[in-house]
Design goal:
Serine Threonine Protein Phosphatase 5, Tetratricopeptide repeat, mainly alpha
């Protein structure tokens, strides 16, 4: 009975340890590119998104299974981050359990394999791949890859039969199937065929013709998926950008240092940060090639038969790092040569070696020393867990994520400008300027930093400087849609409405299918008095993105101004279906109902609008109008006065307040409000009340 319960207790301990470590991340929000990857990804909301994912991809990579899982997640829990975090953690713990099972097949003893699974579950270097929602591709690709390795072990250990190379076909087919699934999640698993060859060399001392023939389909799949990934990187992620990675010699120097860097962080995981400093290798120095000399010497020493098991583990570590060491161009290389999430799969090799060594040491320890050895091993694991839990807390939101990065690596230009953008959104634009300017100093040709600097300047009312910053961003990247929209907004705010219309028009020309840009152009045209043209732009925005509540709201306003109230009400209702707390849309719907003398309905809608946004001046004014129509003058007066306190001081509002005061017999106050209305409207023509 004890022997049957013990493994379940071990599994429970592993899972509980993982849950404890990653608990801070489970409460986390979206960070970095999570919004673009999931929350703001229109493909995931599209009912036909699955077809686009597989047959019309537009992203920086082609990982169809990963995107399919994200599509399913979106339709299960929408924009609630908790669901995505739980899936990442569930996949990670599944991988830890599968790794434990694999080690039981590969190394002797009972404790060593379990230690390997536990270390992988709680190691700080795995935190980034689990706590960062966008790294689903890492967490998702590993379970099928481990299942493929388990199937390969089954195939190599099976007695001769009718399958390939005289062995059973079932295990071989399963290996190929699981590898194909892993490739569909992330192409970094492409080195798996080399791992299969290393395994054969470990077990047999040679690869032989059988091994080469058996791995040929795996190499074919790996090459095909690898070429597709390179094509997507060149066409969508890099797009001809200068990554400043130098030629092959420079990249080889960087790769050797990166290999040692990852080994060091696995053995001593301190000082982990989301963006590491990028060491200079253009041109490289002779000293920077010393890691490769050490690697070759170690490989030669490990090739001897008694040490081949260690060689297999270290070989798996090194081989799986090859795609991310910098030999091949990747967009991430412009930020850093290394990243924690690149080591997620390779870490298994080094952890496996450590687990085998620790297990053998514990098995050889007897008596009182065995208890001390176990305590030491558990203390080491506790240290890893505490470090990982602290690391997981960094990923709870963008402010902590980028703030921690800037604190540990002030030269991280991407972190500097992203932290600046967060500060702007939190109302601290002055503090943001310093970070945006530092980012530009560190990386002058980064258009997003110029755009973010413009946003900070615009928030401070320094519109001419903001316009210049947006123009700098567009000189670096003419197709930068957000910068062009921001330029249009800054021009409109500074009174240069014709120039704003030109800027928005150019943005529409370059991105004709972007609904938000059509909406912004419509707003500029409406402000310029070109109502018909504005209505056309709003209609285009609604057609391009029926879920864009802002477009429905603006189209409703344009229709209302054209006297087409029933159609306007339909658009306000459509906006509210997409965004029920949209106070402006609900208030305008209430006003339209009041104008049509549907007063009870109008009051209900306007009261709901003010529940969503209590400090909405126009909402109070509209509710006052509806209540006055219902003869509820004291309540109407209270709302008119609230609107005045909140800053809405139009002649219409003073006139309507005066009418309500007069209806209540408050003649002197009414006369004062009439006088104030006349003063405001003097020279402006007739007043136009609702």
């Amino acid at each position: 009975m004890k022997s049957r319960i013990y493994p379940w207790c071990q599994a429970a301990a592993l899972v509980l340890a993982g849950l404890w470590v990653f608990w801070p991340a489970l409460r986390g929000d979206w960070i970095w590119d999570d919004l673009a990857e999931v929350a703001a990804n229109p493909v995931l909301r599209d009912p036909r998104g699955l077809m686009k994912i597989w047959f019309a991809p537009t992203g920086a990579d082609y990982f169809p299974l990963k995107s399919t899982v994200q599509w399913l997640e979106w339709h299960l829990w929408g924009d609630l981050p908790l669901g995505y975090h739980l899936v990442n953690l569930g996949l990670h713990l599944t991988s830890a359990l599968l790794f434990w099972r694999l080690l039981k097949r590969l190394i002797p003893g009972a404790l060593g394999p379990w230690l390997g699974g536990l270390i992988f579950a709680i190691h700080p270097l795995t935190v980034e791949s689990v706590a960062w929602i966008a790294e689903l591709k890492n967490a998702l690709s590993l379970p099928p890859l481990l299942l493929a390795m388990l199937s390969w072990v089954d195939w190599t250990e099976a007695p001769a039969g009718p399958g390939p190379s005289g062995r059973p076909t079932g295990a071989y087919a399963r290996t190929l199937f699981w590898f194909l699934l892993a490739l569909g999640c992330k192409t970094s698993v492409v080195m798996f065929p080399v791992v299969l060859l290393l395994f054969l060399y470990w077990k047999r001392g040679r690869i032989g013709r059988e091994g080469w023939w058996a791995t040929t389909p795996f190499f074919a799949l790996g090459v095909a998926f690898g070429l597709v990934t390179l094509w997507f990187q060149e066409r969508h992620a890099i797009v001809g950008a200068d990554l400043a990675i130098g030629g092959f010699v420079s990249r080889a120097a960087a790769a050797g240092i990166a290999l040692v860097f990852y080994a060091g962080k696995l053995l001593w995981p301190v000082g982990l940060i989301p963006n590491y400093p990028r060491w200079p290798v253009v041109p490289p120095s002779l000293v920077q090639f010393l890691p490769w000399a050490a690697v070759l010497a170690l490989a030669a020493w490990l090739s001897a038969r008694p040490r081949r098991a260690v060689g297999f583990g270290l070989g798996c570590f090194a081989v799986n790092l090859l795609p991310v060491l910098g030999f091949l161009p990747m967009a991430y290389l412009r930020i850093s040569w290394v990243a924690d999430h690149f080591a997620y799969l390779p870490a298994l090799g080094l952890i496996g070696v450590a687990a085998a060594g620790a297990g053998a040491w514990l098995e050889r320890t007897h008596g009182g020393w065995r208890g001390a050895a176990l305590a030491l091993a558990m203390a080491a694991c506790a240290g890893l867990g505490l470090t990982s839990r602290h690391q997981a807390a960094i990923y709870r939101d963008d402010a902590h994520f980028w703030g921690y990065t800037v604190q540990r690596n002030p030269a991280a230009w991407l972190a500097q400008t992203n932290l600046g953008l967060i500060l702007v959104r939190s109302g601290r634009a002055s503090a943001a300027l310093e970070h945006d300017q530092e980012s530009i100093r560190l990386q002058p040709r980064y258009p997003e930093a110029h755009n973010n600097l413009g946003t900070a300047l615009a928030s401070l009312g320094r519109l001419p400087e903001a316009i210049a910053a947006y123009q700098d961003a567009l000189r670096l990247q003419p197709d930068f849609l957000e910068a062009r929209r921001n330029l249009g907004s800054a021009l409109a705010q500074s009174g240069h409405l014709p120039e704003a219309i030109v800027a928005y028009g150019e943005a529409v020309r370059r991105s004709p299918n972007d609904a938000l840009t059509h909406c912004y152009l419509g707003m500029a045209l409406a402000e310029a008095g070109q109502s018909a043209a504005a209505l056309g732009e709003y209609a285009a925005a609604v057609r391009l993105d029926p879920d864009l509540a802002e477009a429905h709201y603006r189209l409703g306003n344009a229709l209302a101004n054209a006297g087409r109230l029933p159609e306007a009400m339909g658009e306000y209702t459509a906006a509210l279906r997409r965004q029920p707390e949209y106070a402006e849309a609900r208030a305008n719907l209430g006003l339209a109902l009041a104008v049509q003398h549907r007063i009870p309905e109008a009051v209900v809608e306007l009261e709901r609008a003010l529940q969503s946004k209590p400090a909405y001046a126009e909402g109070h004014a509209y509710l006052g109008y509806a209540l006055a129509q219902a003869g509820r003058y004291p309540e109407a007066i209270a709302h008119y006065q609230a609107a005045l306190r909140l800053g809405s001081g139009s002649a219409d509002l003073h006139y309507n307040l005066a009418e309500a005061l007069r209806a209540c017999g408050r003649t002197r106050e009414a006369r004062a409000e009439f006088d104030r209305a006349a003063e405001i409207s003097a020279g402006a023509g007739a007043m136009s009340r609702p």
